[in-house]
Amino acid sequence: MPTLFEKIVQGDIDADIVYQDDSITAFRDINPKAPVHILLVPNKVIATANDIGAGDEVLVGHMMRVAADIARNEGIAESGYRLIINCNDDGGQEVYHLHLHLVGGRPLGAMVPE
Ligand code: AMP
Fold it and tell me: Which residue's C-alpha comes closest to atom 20 of ligand 1?
């Protein structure tokens, strides 16, 4: 079964895509937690951060660099933002297709709730 995010990557489910290339896709989160909330995903499925292999280092680095480019395009690079990857149950991961949250546009408060 394709993951939800694979369906978005392949265009089978509508999403507000802000960036796409051969290896990654970025789209606006459907339930944004801040004025800017964008998800960056690899086009291929990597289930969790635990599944990032040595061969994925360039891909994951690319996700980080493009996230910074998108932050600049969204006008939040100087005010600041947060990049988040949730992993498994305790991390609050809901979709088992690796994704980097780019969140910003307001002060985000404490990094982790006490
Ligand atoms: P996580 O809890 O880290 O797995 O985050 C999953 C994220 O996917 C949540 O922030 C959801 O709001 C978001 N999400 C779920 N379905 C969609 C969708 N169809 N389009 C865009 N974002 C989605």
Answer: 30
pLDDT score at 24 = 98
pTM of the predicted model over 0.90: yes
* Ligand 1 pocket, residues with Cβ under 6 angstroms: 4, 13, 15, 27, 29-31, 39, 86, 92-95
Q: Where are the domains of the chain?
A: 4-104
Q: 85 vs 12, 14, 49, CA distance in Å?
A: 24, 23, 7
CB contact burial 89-104 (16+ within 10 A = b; e otherwise): eeeebeeebbbbbbbb
pLDDT digits (tens, 9 = 90+) for 13-54: 999 999 999 999 999 999 999 999 999 999 999 999 999 999
Domain 4-104 bears CATH identifier 3.30.428.10: yes
